[in-house]
Amino acid sequence: MILIVDGWRIDVPARSAERRDQSVRLSPRAIRFLQVFAEAPGDTIPRETLLDRVWPDVTVSDESLSQVVAELRRKLASKDLIATIPRGGYRLTVPILRDLANGAGPTHGPGGSLPIDAYALFLEARSCLARGDEGALHTFAALAAQAVARAPEDAEIRALYATALLKQHIYWSEGATLLDAALTEAEKAVTVNPDNAETLLADGAARIEAGMKDAGLRAIARALSLARGDAGLHLEAAMRVMAAGDRRSAAALALRAAELAATGFRGDQLAARYLERDEPDRARVHAERALRTVRTELEIDPNALRALYALGPLLAQLGDAHAARAALEAVPHHNSPLEYYRAVGFARIGDVTAALERITFLSSHGWRGYFSITADEGFRAARTDARFRRLHSELLSA
Fold first, then answer.
1. Residue 347: which of 279, 273, 255, 270 has the closest Cα?
2. Mean pLDDT of the chain
3. Cα separation of 148 and 210, whole Å?
4. 134: how many CB neighbours lie within 10 A of its CB?
5. Which residues pair with 5 in a beta bridge?
6. Which of 146, 196, 147, 140 lies closest to 165, judged by CA?
């Protein structure tokens, strides 16, 4: 059996753990501890249960359990990997997967069907991410982990999990090592199916974030060639290509996403941002289109979170500072990376203090999208403020 946790590939029979250029040996009790959590993904497990399962038919003290926890935290290089729950026991802070491809065989083979529970989790995870509500990234990652545990040989489900890890790393990470885990999962997805657009997109996105820009862009180009009519894939590709520093191509992909998804606003919203520096008149057209769609969506659902967060920045980009401020202040604070859009909106209307508060909040939760501050025209006016320049410099050097 192979276990995968936090980017580590743990060979259970060999009691070895590897992650990129790192390799460590684990004690039999540490291996058994991880196996117990693999059998109950996401659960908090009481100390008494762990003592019974890790040391069956042997009486040991709590100190033995504490030593195993300390060993795993030390050898797997993360003191936050295992959370101590007061009066509750322990919980793994990242998903742990059993890689059935290395033993029990695939969940479904060529021509086989995807288990319905895995597919349902897959759909629920994607829906959760699209809503963008409070805690969405953590829920998205948890659902994707459950799906891949049920269908480890499904390439798109593995790609979805890689995407969940990557987004947590960039926008809401509790640990930088999630990038290693995202790369591992994306590589596994490509191994399962090298001709699937979603797997190639996930692989390309992870590589760009890891600094392998050219390889990442090649993977994304291949993904786009396989899915030229997929609006969502073009939208995600636009953001990853922008992160790689190619504004012109990112704008073209955002425009294509807007063309393919005529009823949504996110393609127009991205196009308005990416075109603003070089083609301001064209950017305004797309900002107006996005604003109309956002207002229509809010008439149908006044609580649509992504639309609520888009309204203020779009009004600000179109020059209506008074309405923009009202919209920005009307959005209740959410414990969500979507607060980035309020930072942009406040910066656009000249309220640098409010913009700094939003960025500081994001940074405190591990947000790593610092390239956005440099590239996003919404921050242009704020860049002349000494406080803003100082915070940006601190974030880049962290």
1. 273
2. 87
3. 23
4. 15
5. 8, 96
6. 140
At 347, the pLDDT band (50, 70, 90 cuts) reads: very high
| Of the candidates 285, 226, 291, the residue with the CA atom closest to the CA atom of residue 234 | 226
Say whether pLDDT at 254 is over 90: yes
Nearest alpha carbon to residue 162 among 291, 55, 7:
7
| Residue at 65: amino acid letter | L
**CB of 76 closer than 8 Å to CB of 17:** yes
The 10s digit of each residue's pLDDT in 276-310 is 999 999 999 999 999 999 999 999 889 889 999 99
Kindly give, in sequence order, each residue whose CB lies less than 8 Å from that of residue 384, ignoring residues fewer than 6 positions away: none
Query: Given pLDDT bands bounded at 50, 70 and 90, which one contains residue 224?
Result: very high
Output 109 or 347, whichever has higher pLDDT.
Answer: 347
Taking alpha carbons only, the member of 179, 181, 219 closest to residue 201 is: 219
List beta partners, residue 23: 18
Which H helix or E strand runs over 83?
A: strand 82-85
Q: At what angle do helices 247-260 and 266-275 cross, to 10 degrees?
A: 150
The answer to whether 46 touches 88, Cβ cutoff 8 Å, is: yes
CA–CA separation, 329 and 111 (whole Å): 53
* 111-139: average pLDDT: 78
Low-confidence winner among 54-68, 125-139, 255-269 (lowest mean pLDDT):
125-139
Over 125-176, what HEC string results? HHHHHHHCCCCHHHHHHHHHHHHHHHCCCCHHHHHHHHHHHHHHHHHCCCCC
This prediction's pTM: 0.73
Residue 221 contacts by C-beta under 8 Å, 6 or more apart in sequence?
none
DSSP 204-265: HHHHHHTT-HHHHHHHHHHHHHH-TT-HHHHHHHHHHHHHTT-HHHHHHHHHHHHHH-TT-S
Span between the terminal Cα atoms of the chain, in Å: 38
Please, which residues have CB within 8 angstroms of residue 135's CB and are 6 or more apart in sequence?
335, 336
Largest CA distance in the chain: 75
